[in-house]
Give the backbone structure.
Amino acid sequence: MAASSVIDIKGLSKIYGRGGNSLVALDKLTLQVQPGEIFGYLGPNGAGKTTTIRVLLDLIRPSSGSATIFGMDARQQSVEIHQRIGFLPGELSLWQGRSGMQVIHYVASVRGDIKRTVKQAEELAARLKLDTSKKVRDLSSGNKRKLGLVIAMMHSPDLLILDEPTNGLDPLVQQTFHELMHEFRDKGKTVFLSSHVLSEVQAICDRVGILRDGDLKAVQTVDALTNVEFRWVHVQFRGGVPADVAQGLRSLPAVSEFQAEGANARMRLQGDFDPLLRAIAAGYVEQLHVEEPTLEDIFLAYYSGEGESA
Amino acid sequence: MSGIIISNTLRTAWRQMFYWGLGLGLLGMYIVFIASNSDIVQGYADLFESLPPALLTAFGASGAELFRSTEGWVVTILVSELALFLSVYAVMAGLAVTANEEQSGILDMVLSLPISRRAFLLEKWLAYALLAFGTVLISGLLPVMTAVALGIEADIGIIFASILAVYPGALIVITVTVLLATLFRRRIAAIGAVAAYVIGSYMFSIIGGSASGPIADLLEAISYFSHVGGEAIVAGEYEPSGALALLVAAGLGFALSAYLFDRRDIGI
């Protein structure tokens, strides 16, 4: 399976600094990204997402371990790899005095096949409603981001590596971005994107890796991640939440984060429903509502350590 | 090496080269204009004759006799100033090779393109080496044209050759700046280190030229200012070995920079 992976990372570690001031940015990371999938790389700031991307792009060198892209070593064959990938950095910096089109021409000239690449750039810019005649210094942060997306995608790469791609994009453009990603995947191409926007990952990704403190906590399909064992349960009682019922619910090991207000009780249930149903049977239940956890809940659960067993 | 980085760098940085060349050329024109008055030249020669040798060295001359000929006067005054001002240009050019783009984050995007780090560095270095030559050329052509226009009695070829001989020094400063930017990563640290190198080199040249003994000789030898060669060209005693040594050192410095740049993290 690993042989056909687009990205194959094995035991990758990156330690910044030496001695007492050293910082482990990545700790023996092992991860595969398969062809034709959109892989979401989730984690808060400082988790190691950008470090992983920078190792993949050969901008920084790992302390140990290896990374291959298309079966080629990320360091030894970086030029061949870069021919087939598009990259959007998390903080995009470009030449302030050049117009968007000048930047596109420059990048296209380094990549080769200028005519076709520039034509595709113009099409992408039109879809993203980007004015490429403006100088970079005159572009808003959202428009700079659009220009970065155009540069990353204009040569029809086989793999897109995007670091926080929708930062600064307005919701309409985000929608266009989602469409572009789905179209890209439908062509059998692969996307590796880092994000801390869970709804975005939920909307476009096939699989998600959750990173914390340089350690990959889980890799799951978005569906499987959502299908964890806890649920939010809302119960509405006639005449308010009975005191004995509230006490009974609080004492259940499977129930946590119990809140009661007026006639409504809200709690987090881990495991089977039966103990909860028996506990609320002492009251008159008008409504019972079960809510699936959001990806944010799951995300938080992984960060608190619970998710690893979920 | 595709040449795309070179052509792109030349296209975007030629104005800077032109304005620097123009500014330095205007300085040369001014000095040539003064030299067109033989009384002023002789007055200066008399003044310099009364100066101690150490002070004369600060002007780039080993003796006052040099100031008696018009070309000697022009070369001594102009070349020492050109060497100093071109060092500033060379530091800026050296920083533009990698340090500026690394500091701003642009290098992340550039190095994600299909070009190796070595090829990128080589093309940028060559581009700025060419631009520095262009600056020297413009700054030499303007005073020479002025000298021709004013019809001053001087060997124009010597003046032009002396100005061109400043180039290896500028190239070594560009290369040292690139090397220091590669070593220190942070732009401000590279600027501090290269400023120390330029000032130190200038001081070594003065100390080495005004004193005698093995230490003074060593200081003079390691200063790139000592190899500018203007005085030797005027005296007809120019040995290209000093300039060649600077060019070889620049080549070796670049090779070391490329080696280090290829092995280190970018943008941290």
About this structure: Chain A touches chain B at residues 16, 54, 57-61, 78-80, 82-83, 85, 87, 89, 91-95, 98, 106-107, 109-111, 148, 151 (CB under 8 Å). Residues 127 and 176 of chain A are 8 Å apart (CA to CA).
